[in-house]
Amino acid sequence: MKPLFRLFGAAMLIASSALQIQPAAAQKVLTIATDATFPPFESIDSSGKVVGYDVELMQAVCDAAKLKCNIINAAWEGMIPGLIAGKYDALISQLTVTEARRKILAFSDIYDRPVFRFVAKQGATYEFTPEGLKGKTIAVQTGTPMDAFVTKTFPQADIKRYTSGSAPYLELASGRAELHMSYEAQITHAFLKSEDGKGFGLLGPRYTGKDAPEFGEGVAIAINKRNVELVKSVNEGLAKLRENGALAALNAKYFGTN
Prior knowledge:
alpha/beta; D-Maltodextrin-Binding Protein, domain 2; signal; Amino acid ABC transporter substrate-binding protein, PAAT family; Solute-binding_3/MltF_N
């Protein structure tokens, strides 16, 4: 009987060891969605990889918080419903924090406060009032702060809406739209520095969340309201990036500022 007891004891020891290592090995891989049509914040490179400022930031947050994350491209219009339904664990796509979104989503701490601008042909002059933009064609990405702002502020304009963040620039470059509104940094680094952006420029007021509620409090990572622990972990990761200078370095890499 002694050999049998020895075998049983060995089996129990192996099972115990497996149980001890299981938590680390079975750590959940979080699915983080981004709309990769909004360079330089998020886009797809020539190899098919999701890249950009938000992608690097999210990966750095995950590393700092010791989270396993898989960042994927997703359609803009399905991202928030997907997060609420549990399809995604978090969203990072230059999501502005607004009162309406706070009712259905949880957010990390703010990591940026963008400026919003119009872009149009150089030399064009517009009066940025409801009457001044009456009948003017404005291209925006649907469901964004820019869409909400121009819809409310310039009701007599001809507003064209597109599901991707890059489509409005095609309309602008082709002459099918007169103006486009987006983040100043996005217009500058993704369009004005490109071949298609030659002959175009920023114009009109520089808008922030202080000017209109549609522009929100700032930009943050969106998380399902039920996942309180993930909000805490993400905020801890962001705090580490601020403290160790990684966030400032990322801003300098993409925008030349910190």
